[in-house]
């Protein structure tokens, strides 16, 4: 007959685990191994998903990147294991396996989610997770969710996340079972089971603490701990990026964005008078005259010489979404992505070494129209109180001279605070997504198509013909995730560029819409007295990362078209690199408009 006391004790032993220090350390090591395997698999997934960027990089380079990545992975794993290490002080805490399984499953699941999200994030931005995540979270949730839903395989990622979380939970549970103590209790009961005395556990903890500190520092050298630059040991930017840990990168971005040190991002290194004079010596040209010297460091007036100007009455700026130079035929790129733009270059002046002042629309648009650069710590000036200042950009310059104006845009002006910012700079007429009647195509995420925007732009320019001089900003949007385009598509789809097919198809469509606009605009009387400026707001990454900055995301063409500007000539190659902040001064000089500049670019 079975002994009831023995059965009860057996059941209790299964319920109330009282591990030894040895079993607890074994459990900790197995859990660490599970997380290290997870991070390595995520790094492998990132490599495979973006394999088009491997090019001719040898396998040994990526093995080096994986080895570098282990050092950062170990750092994060040690942070997550801190509760288990602290449990060495208490026998009851070491027995709390259920809590540890829950903690490790939740923490690892979050890291898994970030790793899955990072695969497309890297494909889009060529960067590991960074402050852009917080910026998108801050934006309009409806638009962001729509962009993600229609532009990325959300369901597939959620299913992968759920399955991965289940596997992690089972792995941590398996580690628990594999490291439970075996054999009978030395004292005969659970409560009297022998464990290491407190002083032995403290000694073990001190050894573990030493190991943890070395692992978290990531190096035995004196001075600073392991930094992101320490994993940049290869000649491949892609491999170097693989060596990073996306979760740690996001945590560092959060500290930089929300930490107290952000207010001190600009530190004074020179006395103010010396700093002011140094900047003036660098920027102010002999033909320029400083004004408002007490309140502005480099505000100066410039009147362009009459013999070097054109009879231009109006200015139309066409800001092309993601118009990357690496895919423009006129810049020597194959693929026939921009045949209409390429044809237009024979009518004007093309800058082929032009660079945007950022990698997002609000940065390129701000620099282009306001003549003010995108600065560290002030990356979102259009949306912040600091952007409320009157800047020496095109709206401020021409509105003060009684020019009429219009801003035509496919989308919602509230997204980047365009209406608030530009109305404060002097613009008065805004045509957005809700102002279009019976558009050819309307995307639920962003708005109407580029051809709708250009058609409405033609109407607005025609309505201003014969009146006051005018300036206009026509901004495209179709070449943006989720790349929703009209059907049937008026251009041939790109099918030979892998993950870039949709992006380049949208770029080809935007180019077609641009061509249709010029075919119609050149028939209007205002065309012969208007300066047209076509410029990309920013570029986008492709298979090649040129320099650590990934210049492909910045290089965009700028084309200026006006009667008599540059007959029979195609492009201009300058020994210096013009940028978005150079736009307004260049246009003003061609149009014989006296201007005041307070930025880095001269008039």
TrEMBL record:
GO terms for cellular component: plasma membrane. GO terms for molecular function: metal ion binding. The active site is at 361. Signal peptide: none annotated. It is a multi-pass membrane protein. It holds the Pfam family Sulfatase. InterPro entries: Alkaline_phosphatase_core_sf, LtaS-like, OpgB/LTA_synthase_biosynth, Sulfatase_N. This is Lipoteichoic acid synthase 1.
């Amino acid at each position: 007959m079975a002994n009831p006391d023995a059965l009860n004790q057996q059941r209790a032993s299964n319920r109330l685990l009282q591990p030894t220090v040895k079993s607890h350390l074994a459990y900790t090591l197995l859990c660490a191994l599970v997380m290290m395997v997870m991070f390595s698999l995520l790094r492998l997934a990132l490599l495979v998903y973006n394999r088009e960027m491997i090019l001719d990089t040898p396998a040994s380079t990526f093995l080096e990147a994986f080895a570098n990545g282990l050092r950062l992975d170990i750092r994060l794993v040690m942070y997550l294991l801190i509760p288990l290490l602290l449990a060495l002080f208490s026998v009851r805490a070491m027995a709390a396996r259920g809590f540890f399984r829950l903690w490790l499953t939740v923490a690892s699941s979050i890291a898994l989610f970030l790793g899955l999200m990072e695969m497309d994030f890297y494909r889009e931005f060529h960067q590991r997770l960074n402050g852009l995540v917080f910026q998108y979270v801050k934006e309009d949730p409806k638009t962001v969710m729509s962009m993600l839903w229609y532009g990325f395989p959300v369901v597939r990622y959620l299913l992968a996340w759920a399955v991965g979380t289940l596997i992690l939970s089972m792995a941590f549970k398996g580690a628990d079972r594999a490291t439970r103590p075996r054999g009978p209790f030395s004292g005969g009961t659970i409560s009297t089971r022998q464990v290491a005395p407190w002083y032995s556990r403290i000694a073990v903890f001190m050894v573990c603490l030493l190991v943890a500190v070395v692992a978290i520092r990531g190096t035995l050298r004196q001075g600073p701990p392991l930094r992101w630059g320490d994993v940049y040991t290869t000649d491949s930017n892609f491999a170097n990026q693989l060596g990073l840990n996306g979760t740690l990168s996001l945590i560092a971005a959060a500290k930089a964005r929300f930490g107290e040190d952000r207010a001190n991002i600009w530190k004074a290194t020179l006395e103010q008078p010396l700093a002011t004079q140094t900047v003036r010596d660098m920027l102010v040209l002999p033909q320029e005259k400083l004004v408002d010297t007490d309140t502005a460091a480099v505000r100066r007036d410039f009147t362009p010489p009459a013999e070097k100007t054109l009879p231009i009455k109006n200015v139309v700026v066409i800001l092309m979404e993601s118009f990357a130079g690496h895919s423009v035929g006129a810049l020597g790129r194959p693929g026939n992505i921009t045949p209409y733009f390429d044809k237009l270059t024979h009518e004007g002046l093309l800058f082929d070494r032009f660079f945007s002042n950022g990698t997002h629309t609000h940065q390129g648009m701000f620099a282009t129209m306001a003549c003010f650069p995108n600065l560290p710590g002030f990356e979102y000036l259009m949306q912040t109180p600091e952007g409320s200042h009157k800047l020496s950009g095109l709206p401020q310059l021409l509105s003060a001279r009684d020019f009429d104006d219009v801003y035509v845009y496919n989308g919602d002006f509230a997204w980047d605070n365009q209406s608030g910012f530009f109305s404060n700079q002097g613009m008065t007429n805004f045509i957005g997504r809700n102002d279009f009647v019976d558009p050819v195509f309307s995307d639920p995420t962003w708005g109407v198509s580029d051809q709708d925007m250009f058609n409405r732009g033609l109407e607005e320019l025609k309505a201003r013909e014969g009146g006051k001089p005018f300036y206009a900003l026509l901004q495209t949007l179709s070449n943006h995730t989720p790349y929703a385009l009209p059907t049937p598509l008026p251009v041939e789809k790109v099918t030979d560029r892998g993950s870039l097919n949709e992006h380049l198809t949208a770029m080809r469509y935007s180019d077609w819409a641009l061509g249709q606009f010029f075919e119609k605009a050149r028939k209007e009387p205002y065309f012969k007295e208007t300066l047209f400026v076509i410029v990309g707001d920013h570029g986008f990454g492709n298979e090649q990362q040129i320099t650590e900055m990934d210049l492909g995301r910045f290089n965009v063409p700028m084309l200026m078209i006006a009667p008599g500007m540059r007959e029979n000539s195609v492009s201009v190659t300058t020994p210096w690199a013009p940028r978005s902040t150079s736009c307004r001064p260049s246009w003003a000089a061609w149009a014989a408009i006296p201007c005041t500049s307070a930025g880095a670019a001269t008039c």
